[in-house]
């Protein structure tokens, strides 16, 4: 019996190693949203282009909208940006949430890289991000015509992600 006690630390180590291995094998972009199939959170924020112009969650109603959380400090957002421009050129409604950023830096960033957003609200203190459950930028949310969040994606949206994750939902929402 005393010899069995010697194996307890080994058993604990093996158990912890198995849990770590399981955690490492998870897809980090597959973070579920507690808001899926719920209304986009209420907010009232100024728009980046005109800080006197305020938008609310009601501005998402009527059209399927890709809401993209971005920031100038986010290196990966720069990688994603050209694809957002393509989506906007294809007629996809893209709305931005400028997350914990400096407005002047964000305006300069959009002037240099072009602006894919119909409008981009300024979430300087991250309250909207907190309500959305944002882990960091970039994150994208697909919001239906009634303002309901249908999908959340953490990380870069590129053509592969768009076709695999977003288009089936959009086609379903459009009744195709």
What would you note in describing this structure?
The structure is a single chain. This protein is of the alpha/beta class and 176 residues long. The protein has a single domain (30-173), classed as Glutaredoxin. Helix content is 39%, strand content 19%. The protein has 6 helices and 7 strands; from the N terminus they run ααβββαβαβαββα. It has helices at 2-5, 8-24, 75-89, 103-113, 127-132, 159-173; strands at residues 44-46, 54-56, 65-70, 93-99, 120-123, 139-143, 149-154. The strands form 2 sheets. A 5-stranded mixed β-sheet has the order 5-4-3-6-7. The N and C termini lie far apart (67 Å). The relative contact order is 0.18.
Q: What topology does this entry show?
A:
Blueprint: H1 2-5, H2 8-24, E1 44-46, E2 54-56, E3 65-70, H3 75-89, E4 93-99, H4 103-113, E5 120-123, H5 127-132, E6 139-143, E7 149-154, H6 159-173
Parallel strand pairs: 3-4, 4-5
Antiparallel strand pairs: 1-2, 3-6, 6-7
